[in-house]
TrEMBL record:
Motif window: DGA/G: 159-161
Segments forming domain PNPLA: 5-172
Protein's name in the database: Patatin family protein
InterPro entries linked to this entry: Acyl_Trfase/lysoPLipase, DUF6363, NTE, PNPLA_dom, YjjU-like
GO biological process: lipid catabolic process
Keyword Nuclease: no
GO molecular function: hydrolase activity
Length: 283
């Protein structure tokens, strides 16, 4: 029975996930495959490279650096999260990404992106942790309106959360029968219609109508997936970890103390789940 791990996005809400994942690593919880969406991809890759503490370390260190995130980066580069700084300078020079360990780890790591021309999700295996895989991580986390479209292998892509925020059905289709799902919103959360839709239609509607359609119905699809997860949880097919209280952190939070606080919550709440997760996975 293949065991899987599904990592929702949510920009800097991903500090919660980072805390939970570090607890997993410290307690030797392993799965056959993991799939990350958006921040779940950009931060979740550190699970495969077994780098405990790396996500919170570089985020708290560089969150106030204008090269990392902010309006200056958006104006200068077209990416609110600076692509070169985040996906080149940090992993290759400032806080080295452990490519060797990533490649040796037998766990498969997938990311979800959205094809801006078709509006369909792309599920991509990232086996090497090299520059190409890191570009896929970037594509998965490239939010519409504040990121450049990322082109790889002929695909034009943006954030995977646009088309499949919580890819439980795809992972089950791929043969992962027992799945731990880490969400970044509290129980009872329901996504609302995107208030930016008029601006999104104006900027993207003519060239990428399928992408805009995804954004128009995203709240409907997201809430349906939450309902499906509840039923799968009732049947014992998924184990869900989510914040016990609403997360109020900003999507581009630049306060290192707030990032650290959310990470600490993830660690604390992750510890509460360890015994049950091991039982669920049959460890």
């Amino acid at each position: 029975m293949k065991k899987g791990l599904i990592l929702e996005g949510g920009a800097m809400r991903g500090m919660y996930t980072a805390g939970v994942l570090d607890i997993f690593m410290e307690n030797d919880i392993t799965v056959d495959g993991a799939i990350g969406v958006s921040a779940g991809a950009a931060f979740g890759c550190n699970l495969k490279s077994k780098q405990i503490g790396r996500t919170i370390r570089y985020n708290t260190k560089y969150c106030r650096d204008p090269r990392y995130v902010g309006l200056r980066s958006l104006i200068k580069t077209g990416d609110i999260y600076g692509a070169d700084f985040c996906y080149n300078q940090i992993p290759n020079r400032l806080d080295i990404f452990d490519v060797e360990t990533y490649q040796k780890n037998p766990m498969d790591f997938y990311v979800v992106t959205t094809d801006v021309e078709t509006g369909k999700p792309i599920y991509h295996l990232c086996p090497n942790g090299d520059a190409t895989d890191i570009k896929w991580f970037r594509a998965s986390a490239s939010m519409p309106m504040v990121s450049n479209i990322v082109e790889i292998d002929g695909f034009k892509m943006l954030d995977g959360g646009i088309s499949d925020s919580i890819p439980i059905h795809k992972f089950m289709e791929m043969g992962y029968e027992k799945n731990v799902v880490i969400l970044t919103q509290h129980d009872g959360y329901r996504k609302k219609k995107n208030s930016m839709l008029p601006l999104i239609r104006l900027k993207l509607g003519k060239k990428y109508p399928n992408l805009v359609h995804d954004l128009e119905v995203r709240h409907i699809m997201y809430n349906k997936t939450l309902d499906d997860l509840k039923e799968l949880e009732r049947k014992g097919l998924v184990y869900i970890i989510r914040p016990e209280n609403p997360v109020t952190i900003g999507r581009t939070e630049r306060d290192p103390e707030k990032l650290q606080a959310l990470y600490d919550i993830g660690r604390k709440e992750g510890l509460k789940h360890i015994r049950n997760v091991k039982s669920f996975l049959g460890e």
